[in-house]
Amino acid sequence: MTFDFWAVLAEWPLLLQGLAWTLGLTVVATLVGMAVGIGGAWARAWGPAPLRWAVGVYVELIRNTPFIVQLFFIFFGLPAAGVMLTPITASLIAMVLNLGAYATEIIRAGLQATPRGQMEAAVSLALSPAQVFWRVVLPPALKKVWPAMVSQIIIVMLGSAVCGQISVEELSYAANLIQSRNFRAFEAYIIATLAYLALAILARRLFNWLGPRFLFGK
Amino acid sequence: MTEFTSWDIVRNLLLAVRWTVVLSLIAFVGGSVVGAALLALRLRGGKVAQRCIGGYVQVFQGTPLLMQLFLGYFGLGLLGLDVSPWTAAALALTLYTSAYLTEIWRGCVASIPKGQWEASTSLALSFGEQMRHVILPQAVKIATAPTVGFLVQVIKGTALASVIGFVELTKAGSMIANVTFRPFTVFACVALFYFALCFPISLFAKTLERKTNVSRA
């Protein structure tokens, strides 16, 4: 057998575009998903009982079903209920819901590890409940769970390869398209896979650098 | 034109569940065997073996399972083998599982205090005896909960085998949705079936975790 990696690399604009879509989806999903996770974690830890219960159901439903089924339900299932979505919107919703559920569990673990005395001290300094949450409780909680959070973000980024199945033109879709043009399937998937590996390694470094600087201090 | 009742949908999905279960079991059992072999190599082998296995773990954890499945499918074909989705899916999922399990178990073995190794070495136990009588009985206790938890990941991972044409729950769902024109019901059912498979296992893993923590505290 002979390999022809150049035949695939010659299509670099497609690969690059795919890479850009993968990154774009991941960035949006990370930002919104983390916000969902923070809200969900707050609700799970201190929300009123019905809300706590609802968030619990959401988290367990998402964590115990495959991402591809969530995506298909949103993209193919919801239009039957009258909600039409473009492939990109559907992918984003699926990624946000998915990351949001895992982030809820991860951040909640951090929140519940906060010593009670810290909250009491903050209250006794006349901070409002919102201030206590944002300035006293959340930053150290995020710091504690940041490695797990970063791993989860990377899992979601790698999971976005599935979005190519509903024709979002991300990296795996680009590899599919290229192999359908030149029949170099193995080479195309090797190159895409290496690109994902590089992305995963770089993303981990980037998040490890970003976290202490912008989210919770060293 | 045939009319499809809801019972038709559920019945056909139920029939497909067994392939999800079978594939999960193959991947989990195969992955455990390969993972255990890798773990032994990691503990016994030299620096080179350790680095290689570290790289292996990083590759499988740092790339999408979907790509691994595609590579299994087309890579085996390049070797001149006649690949069925069965072989490709079983191979890719086994390797994927082995990478995660070997990493989970390595962590568990590493959490055994060093004194246990030293004490058993000073009793002139061989590596095999050390493992069997001293290290594994303790490591297995710690490893059970995360291993059971990972089974959920494996079951969810098998859903991706649908993409290379393996007819399991998700693929059956897609096909049924196409003929019945009821994607909402079908995919909701598919999701519920996965939930019914995974949720009890998740709960079980959580219970085990609580038990381990209590016994260690």
From TrEMBL, chain A:
One of the Pfam families matching this protein, by short name: BPD_transp_1
Topology of this chain in the membrane: Multi-pass membrane protein
Subcellular compartments: Cell inner membrane; Cell membrane
InterPro entries: AA_ABC_transptr_permease_3TM (IPR010065), ArtM/GltK/GlnP/TcyL/YhdX-like (IPR043429), MetI-like (IPR000515), MetI-like_sf (IPR035906)
CDD domains: TM_PBP2
Subcellular location, principal: membrane
Keywords, in A-Z order: Cell membrane, Membrane, Transmembrane, Transmembrane helix, Transport
Source organism superkingdom: Bacteria
Signal sequence annotation: none
Residue span, ABC transmembrane type-1 domain: 19-207
Transmembrane segments: 20-43, 71-101, 145-168, 188-207
Gene3D superfamilies, per database record: MetI-like
Similarity annotation: Belongs to the binding-protein-dependent transport system permease family. HisMQ subfamily.
The protein's name in its UniProt record: Amino acid ABC transporter permease
Organism: Ideonella azotifigens
High-level lineage: Bacteria, Pseudomonadati, Pseudomonadota, Betaproteobacteria, Burkholderiales
